[in-house]
UniProtKB/TrEMBL annotation:
Reaction equation(s) it catalyzes: tRNA(Met) + L-methionine + ATP = L-methionyl-tRNA(Met) + AMP + diphosphate
Gene: MARS2
Gene Ontology BP annotations: methionyl-tRNA aminoacylation
Source organism: Chrysochloris asiatica
PANTHER family tied to this protein: METHIONINE--TRNA LIGASE, MITOCHONDRIAL, METHIONYL-TRNA SYNTHETASE
Cellular component terms per the entry's GO annotation: mitochondrial matrix
Name of the protein described by the UniProt record: Methionine--tRNA ligase, mitochondrial
Pfam family, one: Anticodon_3
Organism placement in taxonomy: Eukaryota, Metazoa, Chordata, Craniata, Vertebrata
Length: 593
């Protein structure tokens, strides 16, 4: 049982003054299972993206968040198949002052703006192959019910009180800021104005009576949660950053705004003069999706993994876990954090005219091509740079030439006239290096290839577990290069099917290459689902043979039967990934917004 110490009066500094209007004596709240490990966690997984603010159209940063979650979810489904073992939610955040203001500027009702922009997100994600199981909008009735119930739980536990809050407020970031996080800079008119030190967005001094959450009481429980599980926030630098933030004073958090100032939101239960703070409203979406407050949510919540951008780390790693603990629930299982995308070394900005339209990129580079680029080049630890030439070079090199060329070569009628999975000859490729004989054609590098591809599924799984999808793709690409080297080294096009001495080795070279391609196609399914389906279909791999549990690489090498040996390949599907015409990259630039 955790005991909340008596609330102390916050210091009356200009940056954050709170005057209590009711008793601030010691409180208790229920058992918080910080170390709980429900067995359901082993069977279920629940992935979430942030819900995206609808004040502007989606950009590639939004798509990147969704793709990371989509790939993690798809890979988990390959590892643990079953219709009810994995859930994945995304959606749109539709309340708050920023939406209210944007709608007023556009001359439309907030609901109309939300409908229009939310539809843009849904359309983009559908076109990008984002296989979410739920798209939530915070204007839905089910969400309002969940938020108001969550509020009542906090109130019943004595964690909300009414007070006068005075401090800097940033409407763009929808958050209050202490004096230390505010600076002055020259505005567009030349006058000095106050801005957020972190985001650069303007702030305004605000003084109003709000409901306040006793956040200060959760500093030690949050520190313990983070120290008990060093992997709970990944990558590690972000885990370290949160611990550093918790070394500082943790002031109580204003969790409502005056309805006369902010009317576009969810009213505080029993007090229509107040609107629930947009971040509390938004964060509860993760519970709404899994059925909160009904009992069903309890079997999913302990399995939750949030995928978020680094700019909203504090909300997800401090405010949200504290609110959950306050409601008697455990913090999220994992928080995966990624950095941002720049364009040619500059931050994306409408004023610079360099915001990249993700829809144009999907059309230009294909859906699978752009998915592959973002997940192959995106490194969560630091900001990643986008420019058109980089996309073309990567996709032509790794998908069109290396992977596509390998498939085309091994399935071409000239090299594989029977259109089958050729037989493997153990005499030509014995499983013990160093054996000699007239039939042995294998070289030392070939054993290295077998070892590399045999270990690839586990290596890829480890990278997914560590939120390093880019490393998983790098490992696959490295093995593709090794396989191309294997084929080039043995030059099967120089061998003759009619020659009884050469034919067994020719079949073995193709068999090994096709087995490698089967592994690559299986492992690429989470990132390039359509391309992987095309590859596996051309190899004759059925839908029931594409899970990681069925990925038994090169069984004939280990003395076991191969279910694919002698099987006819699938129908010809054309180029796996056509090379991109570099002379047309200007089309993407012309469509930037």
């Amino acid at each position: 049982m955790w005991r909340i110490p008596a609330l102390r009066l916050l210091g009356c500094t200009r940056s954050s003054r709170v005057f209590l209007f009711q008793d601030a004596g010691p409180r208790h709240y229920g058992s918080c299972p910080l170390g709980a490990r429900d067995e359901v966690r082993d069977r279920r997984a629940y992935f979430t993206t942030p819900i995206f603010y609808v004040n502007a159209a989606p950009h590639i940063g939004h798509l990147y968040s969704a793709l990371l979650a989509d790939a993690l979810c798809r890979h988990r489904s390959l590892r643990v198949p079953g219709a009810v073992t994995t859930r994945f939610s995304t959606g749109t955040d539709e309340h708050g002052l920023k939406i209210q203001q944007a709608a007023a500027i556009a001359g439309v009702a907030p609901a109309e703006l939300c409908d229009r922009v939310s539809a843009q997100f849904q359309r983009l994600f559908r076109e990008a192959g984002i296989a979410c199981t739920d798209f939530i909008r915070t204007t839905e009735v089910r969400h309002r019910r969940a938020v108001q119930h969550f509020w009542e739980v906090l109130r019943a536990r004595g964690l909300l009180y009414k007070g006068l809050y005075e401090g800097w407020y940033c409407a763009s970031d929808e958050c209050f800021l202490p004096e230390a996080k505010v600076t002055k800079q020259q505005g567009p008119s030349g006058d000095a104005c106050h801005v957020s030190l972190e985001s650069g967005h303007p702030v305004a001094w605000t003084k109003e009576e709000n409901y306040i959450f006793r956040l200060s009481q959760f500093r030690e429980p949050l520190q313990q949660w983070l120290r008990d599980d060093p992997q709970v926030i990944t990558p590690e630098p972000f885990h370290h950053a949160v611990l550093q933030w918790l070394e500082e004073e943790l002031p109580d958090l204003s969790v409502s705004r005056r309805s006369s100032h902010l009317h576009w939101g969810i009213p505080v239960p029993g007090d229509d003069s107040q609107t629930i703070y947009v971040w509390l409203d938004a964060l509860v979406n993760y519970l709404t999706v899994i059925g909160y407050p009904d009992a069903e949510f309890k079997s999913w919540w302990p399995t939750t993994s949030h995928i978020i951008g680094k700019d909203i780390l504090k909300f997800h790693a401090i405010y949200w876990p504290a609110l959950l603990l306050g409601a008697g629930m455990s913090p999220p299982h994992r928080i995966y954090v990624h950095s941002h995308w720049t364009v040619c070394g500059q931050k994306m900005s409408k004023s610079l005219g360099n915001v990249v339209d993700p829809k144009t990129c999907l059309d230009r580079y294909t859906v699978d091509g752009f998915r592959y680029f973002l997940l192959r080049q995106g490194v969560p630890n630091w900001d990643c740079d986008y420019y058109d030439e980089k996309v073309v070079k990567l996709l032509d090199s790794e998908l069109a030439d290396a992977l596509g060329g390998l498939l085309n070569r091994c399935t071409a009628k000239r090299l594989n006239p029977s259109g089958t999975y050729p037989a493997f000859c153990a005499a030509c490729f014995p499983n013990k290096p160093g054996l000699v004989g007239s039939s042995v054609r294998v070289q030392a590098e070939d054993y290295a290839l077998v070892r590399a591809v045999a270990s690839l599924p586990k290596q890829v799984a480890d990278h997914y577990d560590n939120f390093q999808i880019y490393k998983a793709l790098e490992a696959v690409s490295s093995c593709v290069r090794q396989t191309n080297g294997f084929v080039q080294r043995h030059a099967p096009w120089k061998l003759n099917w009619e020659n009884p001495v050469e034919a067994p080795w020719l079949g073995t070279v193709l068999h090994v290459a096709l087995e490698c391609l089967r592994v690559f196609g299986t492992l690429l399914q989470p990132v390039t689902p359509t391309l992987a389906d095309k590859l596996l279909s051309q190899l004759g791999v059925s839908a029931t043979e594409r899970g990681l549990g069925e990925l038994n690489f090169l069984p004939r090498f280990y003395g076991h039967p191969c279910p694919f040996e002698g099987r006819r390949l699938g129908p010809e599907t054309g180029l796996l990934f056509p090379r991109l015409d570099q002379s047309r990259t200007w089309l993407v630039k012309a469509h930037r917004t």
